[in-house]
């Protein structure tokens, strides 16, 4: 088992290994006295892992209840959050109790947000079951729901008490969902680790999943420790996300987050190259890495449609929006773009 310690406003461990779901109760009990645990999951993960998680918790002295919602980004809205909060109240969950977020990024984002606002904050544990959640969204304390205006527009910075990543759960992922995590892993490589990028781009890394996840988590740990609230360095983690979120929203979330980020990464690399900020051939290197892992690199949405979404992005500060522009594999820069130049930037990306 690998262990990474995150020292944010709450210090917690990220445990990575195989067979860890059976140890969930034991690991939680080391940190939290047995109490009532509300397991929050989606209908797909519920069938696969909810019973095992609850049995482990019960064996360690926890009593459990379960809330499940229809799987997919389409459930990540205020209605589901409201139902979740009403469920916690009906189950008489108190501030001494805990929430277990069992699933991918949607489960972690919503359960974490519920934990942040229910009774002004109760403890929660992240149990990621997708590659994307393991390498990225389960760590760092960003929680959110989507609004009609855009993705992750309402949320809170709220750190978990523990992240427990059982790598065995990734074995049941459909290839398309697994690829979402590949996109985020490639992102980490472009941001700051050329070796990680090369290993992931090759597609020949599944024997080293624990090592790959640990590498990504350590990178995020270092960034979050320095900039927990996303005011500076942490914005590097948004590589591909500003354009990607708009593309994802334009698809009405029929395009997955990882696939949208993949497109966004390639498009913003084209912009960086054409502005003379990036090494020649960088966009093509990223494009080939994505294609080799069955990820998309282009979109049919117009520049006007994408720019409209970008202008509603939460990264906007007055008359500017921060974009992360890669300069080479392993290095990126944060560049502030005036809002009146966003449409031209998107046109450059699509050209």
From TrEMBL:
The 3-dehydroquinate synthase N-terminal domain sits at 69-178
- Outline the extent of the 3-dehydroquinate synthase C-terminal domain: 181-315
A Pfam match is: DHQS_C
Q: Name one GO molecular function term.
A: nucleotide binding
Q: Which residues bind Zn(2+)?
A: 184, 241, 257
Give the required cofactors: Co(2+); Zn(2+); NAD(+)
* E.C. no: 4.2.3.4
- Give the domain of life: Bacteria
Mention any one GO cellular component term assigned to this protein in its UniProt record. Answer: cytoplasm
* InterPro entries on file: Dehydroquinate_synthase, DHQ_synth_AroB, DHQ_synth_fam, DHQS/DOIS_N, DHQS_C
Where located?
Answer: Cytoplasm
Positions contributing to NAD(+) binding: 105-109, 129-130, 142, 151, 169-172
Annotated GO biological processes are:
amino acid biosynthetic process; aromatic amino acid family biosynthetic process; chorismate biosynthetic process
State the UniProt keywords alphabetically. Amino-acid biosynthesis, Aromatic amino acid biosynthesis, Cobalt, Cytoplasm, Lyase, Metal-binding, NAD, Nucleotide-binding, Zinc
**Which reactions are catalysed by this chain?**
7-phospho-2-dehydro-3-deoxy-D-arabino-heptonate = 3-dehydroquinate + phosphate
Cofactor binding remark:
Binds 1 divalent metal cation per subunit. Can use either Co(2+) or Zn(2+).
Q: Hey, which pathway is this one from?
A: Metabolic intermediate biosynthesis; chorismate biosynthesis; chorismate from D-erythrose 4-phosphate and phosphoenolpyruvate: step 2/7
Q: Which PANTHER family match?
A: 3-DEHYDROQUINATE SYNTHASE, 3-DEHYDROQUINATE SYNTHASE, CHLOROPLASTIC
Q: What does the UniProt function comment say about this protein?
A: Catalyzes the conversion of 3-deoxy-D-arabino-heptulosonate 7-phosphate (DAHP) to dehydroquinate (DHQ).
| Matching HAMAP family | DHQ_synthase (MF_00110)
- Can you tell me which family this protein belongs to? Belongs to the sugar phosphate cyclases superfamily. Dehydroquinate synthase family.
Name the UniProt record assigns to this protein? 3-dehydroquinate synthase
Please tell me the species this chain comes from. Anaerotignum faecicola
Organism lineage string: Bacteria, Bacillati, Bacillota, Clostridia, Lachnospirales
């Amino acid at each position: 088992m690998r262990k990474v310690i995150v020292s944010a406003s709450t210090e917690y461990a990220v445990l990575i290994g195989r067979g860890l779901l059976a140890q969930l109760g034991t690991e939680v009990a080391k940190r939290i006295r047995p109490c009532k645990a509300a397991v929050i999951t989606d209908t797909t993960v519920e069938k696969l892992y909810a019973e095992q998680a609850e049995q482990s918790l019960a064996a360690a002295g926890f009593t459990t209840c379960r809330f499940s919602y229809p799987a997919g980004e389409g459930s990540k809205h205020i209605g589901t959050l409201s139902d979740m909060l009403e469920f916690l109240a009906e189950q008489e969950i108190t501030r001494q109790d805990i929430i277990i977020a069992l699933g991918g990024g949607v489960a972690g984002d919503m359960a974490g947000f519920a934990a942040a606002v229910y009774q002004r904050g109760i403890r929660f544990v992240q149990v990621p079951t997708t590659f994307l959640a393991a390498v990225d969204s389960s760590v760092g304390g960003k929680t959110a729901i989507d609004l009609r205006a855009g993705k992750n527009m309402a949320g809170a910075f709220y750190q978990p008490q523990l992240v427990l990543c059982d790598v065995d759960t990734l074995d049941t992922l459909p290839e398309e969902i697994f690829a979402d995590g590949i996109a985020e892993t490639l992102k980490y490589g472009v941001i700051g680790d050329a070796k990680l990028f090369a290993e992931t781009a090759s597609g020949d890394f599944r024997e080293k999943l624990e090592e790959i996840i640990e590498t990504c988590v350590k990178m995020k740990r270092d960034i979050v420790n320095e900039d927990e609230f996303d005011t500076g360095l942490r914005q590097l983690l948004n590589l591909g996300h500003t354009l990607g979120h708009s593309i994802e929203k334009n698809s009405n979330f029929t395009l997955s987050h990882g696939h949208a980020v993949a497109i966004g990464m390639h498009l913003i690399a084209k912009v960086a190259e054409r502005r003379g900020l990036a090494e020649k051939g960088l966009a093509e290197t990223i494009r080939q890495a994505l294609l080799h892992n069955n990820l998309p690199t282009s979109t049919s949405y117009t520049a006007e449609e994408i720019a409209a979404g970008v202008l509603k992005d939460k990264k906007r500060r007055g008359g500017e929006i921060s974009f992360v522009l890669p300069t080479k594999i392993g290095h990126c820069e944060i560049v502030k773009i005036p809002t009146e130049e966003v449409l031209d930037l998107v046109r450059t990306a699509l050209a």
